[in-house]
Amino acid sequence: MNAKNPPLDQAPPAVKLAVDLIMLLEQHQLDPAVVLAALPIVTKDFQRKLQMQQQAQQ
Predict the structure, then answer these.
(1) Most exposed: 17, 40, 49, 57, by fewest CB within 10 Å?
(2) Cα 27 to Cα 16: distance, rounded to the nearest angstrom
(3) 3-class DSSP state for residue 1?
């Protein structure tokens, strides 16, 4: 691999997770429109969880 495309095992955790999620969604052959509609819901849920986690640490 060249410097522009490092191997996945050297990628940041967020990139590894994104690749795993893409593979999972593709394996389930979900309609891309449904996936895109679901992502903001998932984002909002995890933003809420992060906020709660941060508040608990204060």
Answers:
(1) 57
(2) 17
(3) coil
pLDDT at position 2: 55
Assess contact for 20 and 26: CB atoms under 8 A.
no
| pLDDT beneath 70: ranges in the chain | 1-3
First-to-last CA distance in the chain? 43
Amino acid identity for residue 39 in this structure: L
- The residues near 1 (Cβ < 8 Å, ≥ 6 apart) are 7
Contacts of 16 (CB under 8 A, 6+ apart): 8
What is the C-alpha separation between 10 and 3, in angstroms, rounded? Answer: 11
DSSP 48: H
